[in-house]
From TrEMBL:
Residues 56-70 have a biased composition (Pro residues). Residues 30-41 have a biased composition (Low complexity). This is Uncharacterized protein. Residues 14-91 are annotated as: Disordered. Keywords: Signal. Residues 1-17 form the signal peptide. It comes from Cystobacter fuscus (strain ATCC 25194 / DSM 2262 / NBRC 100088 / M29).
Length: 211
């Protein structure tokens, strides 16, 4: 019985081997071709040109300007005096305005150029009203419309005496002592008129007149 069973097993072995043939291994794939070595990038002309150029020099630093000096403190100019030559010019303007008013017949308008008491020829006036009334009458008799003012010379009173001699006594009597006095000599159609000036709180004013 055992021999029969063994015989059956041996006879069935080839059939089993034919039914399940051995599986063949799949063919190996051919190795992938190596990628060609990439060519090294060609340097651009711009880059090579930039490298060949010399580097630009560094800009020279601009010097910082020094701060402007502070303006000097202004010193007030000294008040002009007779020595500077400006006082005669001021008196000349005052005398010119006074004579123009008198020649125009505006005696009342000339009062602003006068100081009181005022000496007109040999008469003294302490107030403007009486002076205006008297002067208007005298100017009418002199026909001031025919008189022309040519020039006015201004000089200190002491120089007036040296140059023209002593003025009439009526003027010398009214000269204040210790006070700077100027004389304005007006040329009225060839005739001299002398106006004396002294300094007041309102500037130079005429205090005497004679022609």
């Amino acid at each position: 019985m055992r021999c029969w069973s063994l015989l059956l097993l041996l006879s069935a072995a080839p059939a089993l081997s034919q039914e399940n043939p051995p599986t063949e291994a799949p063919p190996a794939e051919a190795p992938a071709a190596e990628a060609p070595a990439s060519e090294s990038p060609r340097p651009s002309r711009r880059r090579s040109r930039t490298r060949s150029e010399a580097p630009a020099p560094a800009p020279t630093p601009t010097p910082t300007p020094a701060p402007a000096p502070a303006p000097a403190e202004e010193v007030p100019e000294p008040r002009p005096t007779s020595r500077t030559g400006s006082e005669p010019e001021r008196i000349r303007k005052e005398a010119h305005a006074l004579v123009d008013s008198l020649l125009a017949g505006d005696v009342r308008g000339s009062v602003g150029y006068l100081a009181f008491p005022f000496q007109l020829e040999e008469r003294r006036f302490d107030a403007p009203e009486s002076l205006v009334a008297t002067w208007v009458k005298e100017l009418r008799n002199k026909r001031t419309d025919l008189v022309t003012l040519y020039d006015i010379e201004v000089l200190p009173y002491a120089e007036l005496e040296r140059k023209y001699g002593k003025p009439p006594a009526r003027l010398g009597a009214v000269i204040p002592r210790g006070t700077e006095v100027y004389a304005a000599v007006a040329n009225l159609s060839g005739h001299a008129a002398v106006i004396l000036y002294r300094q007041t709180d309102d500037g130079w004013k005429a205090f005497a007149y004679t022609d």
